Amino acid sequence: xxxxxxxxxxxxxxxxxxxxxxxxxxxxxxxxxxxxxxxxxxxxxxxxxxxxxxxxxxxxxxxxxxxxxxxxxxxxxxxxxxxxxxxxxxxxxxxxxxxxxxxxxxxxxxxxxxxxxxxxxxxxxxxxxxxxxxxxxxxxxxxxxxxxxxxxxxxxxxxxxxxxxxxxxxxxxxxxxxxxxxxxxxxxxxxxxxxxxxxxxxxxxxxxxxxxxxxxxxxxxxxxxxxxxxxxxxxxxxxxxxxxxxxxxxxxxxxxxxxxxxxxxxxxxxxxxxxxxxxxxxxxxxxxxxxxxxxxxxxxxxxxxxxxxxxxxxxxxxxxxxxxxxxxxxxxxxxxxxxxxxxxxxxxxxxxxxxxxxxxxxxxxxxxxxxxxxxxxxxxxxxxxxxxxxxxxxxxxxxxxxx
Length: 403
Prior knowledge:
- The chain is α+β, with helices and mostly antiparallel strands and 403 residues long.
- It is 42% helix and 12% strand.
- The radius of gyration is 20 Å and the shape is globular.
């Protein structure tokens, strides 16, 4: 497969040094490393162990990501194959070598602020996401992101936003035999039509997801997974939580938000329409963007002095963590019997699983026994936060259990 990928760069351990774990995403650990020949740092996003470095789907999606690199889409340099330091598995693993975005994710930013970002910054974020989505949709042929959510939006030193990780949901899900939503994305950001088995993803899929992300930016809240499960029945996040009197243009974005998550995909605006609205709103506040960014950076930098890991890398208790934990407790018996990717879910939990517990889980012969150990140790002791992270793992790898 490597010989067929002349337009892609393959990177291995001999050209990467100074590895540092900076976080754990939905697909695995994320490292910061220095590329010795290039003399600058990159991000290495590891994929779950069920993704082989020679996977045709991985290389195909990596090529698409490389072609789509732009001012508003994170640059992908190539595919990593090797054994990262501290890895728990033997043999080569797969990953993507990407542009390093030092300010982490939009999700972490929203979690770290007491309220929405200052309005000029909120409006710029909304505009840059619309531009990134529109860039993908206007390529020839058009590209769909299919997993647009705050954790897949990365921020640079100046809090400019770029889309990331489009296509990765398909790479990892193809290795999982269980049913997923038709788009392969995350349940909370999936449009109602995608829950149909015959659904084929369209551009309107991303527009719906963008509407949910826009709601999070404007309210500093995250969509409850309990609401997400009722999306096919017409439920949406509470739009009234956007106080349109607080800033000029908020009413325009609130109206756009509700159009984006319309239950009829044909009635949703195009990505170009979204960009026009967000451009108009942001232009009214552009003069104040510098002060808004400096205000947020000052807050983040002051808080980071007390954190051993950058806030963007931390797994926090989110606003919907309690109902997620309750779901994990209530459906314990079903989850133990039905989960088929026990080790991948354990990997998803990362350092939340004690090394001794990890060895115990690995030694068990069946998925049922592995998950049973996880319940009686890590989930029992870790409380709401760990159970919410476990739920996230189910959402990625065993989404049919959440239906």
